[in-house]
Amino acid sequence: MKQGLLLAAACAGILGCAGSSGAPPTAADAKTFLDTVNDTTKRLGVEQNRAGWVQQTFITDDTEALSARANQLAIDAAARFAKDAVKFDKVEVPTDQRRQLTLLKVGLVLATPADPKESEELTKTMARLESSYGKGKWCPDPNKPDTCKTIDDVTKVMATSRNEKELRAAWEGWHTISPPMRNDYTRFVTLSNKGARELGFADTGAMWRAKYDMTPDEFMKELDRLWDQVRPLYLKLHAYTRLRLREKYGDIVPANGPIPAHLLGNIWAQDWTNIYPLVAPPHADPGYSLTDILKKRNMPPLDMVRTGERFYSSLGFAVLPKTFWERSLFTRPRDRDVVCHASAWNIDVEEDIRIKMCIEQTAEDFTTIHHELGHNYYQRAYRIQPVLFRDSANDGFHEAIGDTIALSVTPEYLVKIGLLDKAPDASRDLGLLMNKALEKIAFLPFGLLIDQWRWKVFSGEVKPADYNQAWWQLRLKYQGIAPPSARGEEFFDPGAKYHVPDNTPYTRYFLADILQFQFHRALSKTAGCTLPLNRCSIYESKPAGQKLNTMMSMGQSRPWPDALDALTGEKQMDATAILDYFAPLSKWLDEQLAGKPVGW
Ligand SMILES: [Zn+2]
Prior knowledge:
Layout: H1 27-57, H2 61-85, H3 95-106, H4 116-134, H5 151-160, H6 164-174, H7 182-198, H8 204-209, H9 216-249, E1 259-260, H10 276-279, H11 290-296, H12 301-314, H13 322-327, E2 343-346, E3 353-356, H14 363-381, H15 395-407, H16 411-416, H17 429-459, H18 467-479, E4 481-482, H19 507-526, H20 542-553, H21 560-568, H22 576-581, H23 583-592
Parallel strand pairs: 1-4
Antiparallel strand pairs: 2-3
Helix pairs in contact: 1-2, 2-3, 4-7, 5-6, 9-17, 9-23, 12-14, 14-15, 15-19, 17-18, 17-19, 20-21
The structure holds zinc ion.
Zinc ion binds next to α14 and α15.
């Protein structure tokens, strides 16, 4: 996760925005406007980052209020600047300035309508939606408030319970938090669409799709193309998982229909790693546990971070600044509440990079450190750009970089850095690959469908009276998942996923999932790796580091296909790298599924 970046167009202050008086705006006005926007964006972004950092590392009512205020200033300014940028639509300006003006317009996630009453109503509606999710609890017995369950409690049940009744109760229980959101969500759609139309977009969904250096329609086709590439592999994983779940749970899992949504180890069925023990290939135990090794050596959290830093140094990147070590948060403080969810920050939008994590001696945290540092090195690489270009090439790239590096945390890498004596032989790869497939392949259709639903909702193709039905149609179509019980329009199941009430676009996670394998394949090739792709690590490859740095230092100054080209030599996103990476698993699945039903 990445935090503390600028909003795409945060800016504020009473600006003498060009074009506001009688005379038509000129190229000189555009330049003045952009200079002011870049300066103010930085100033407000830094304030937002500082307030956000303090709030998350010292949670009190006061720090929350200060952070909320800094956010509001930045959001208001971003909205104002998006509107002001429109005034220069017909002015001839240099290419890089045109790109900055365009980014201002397409950078918003939410456009508030010009009417102050409607704008205020929208802001309040959003706040209500967010807090209904944040405060959402499942209360099995309303008379005993002590027994109410938070999302953390529900997550734990879904991850660990193998009792169908218990899982069903938790699944249905969590989905009781969202029906009250339905009216607010409907109103939010109407008002946010109005704001988007005032900026010249057909609706909010079209505004979201406009930021990918192609038309909204072209982008939708691009996603279909990528999904078609990986769908056959997903179908196999789905079919095999269904087979094993049927052995475990019996007829409740159909032989050739969709999998019930509550049996996959995750409340949204978006990550299936928790049910690994149910689907593990036999005799594929990798023979070592990184968590055990870290614990046995009692490796301090700081050493784990130093190990991550050494990875990037081995690629040729400069060491982390002194302030990184002084200002980051590495462990859970004993005396105060903090947000422990791992994140990477660039507080001053220059060199003040930090991570915030509550590091434990686990394999997961070891990998997460490599991931978070990826954000930091990316942030530092693009600081040479004008402020408005200091972000990833498209919003999938930032998450993809950290994950790309995490893919290089292979057994061979662990051997090289002295954590493992000997890498297990290739016959053990199936276990590692299955585990990764349950995370990365299982996620793909989910990563796609959240916005497929929202785009139809924003465009009006799906009416409020059909919200829930459309949601389940898409979950069936893409994921092959069905609800454990009938879900009519008295429910509002999309609202039980954080990113819907929070209004965070989701396609970026789908893109990141695809891109990280494409990056990994290209960099492994540059590094001269001749092993199977899942065994390649780019550790110690200066040429791979060079390519990574060229791409990262471009920020979003150029259309993303150019950035992709700099790293991979390809201008198109390509999901076939996923197929290459999982080839041994795919072959094994074919053998297991011979004569068995695939699809639903
Ligand atoms: Zn991340």
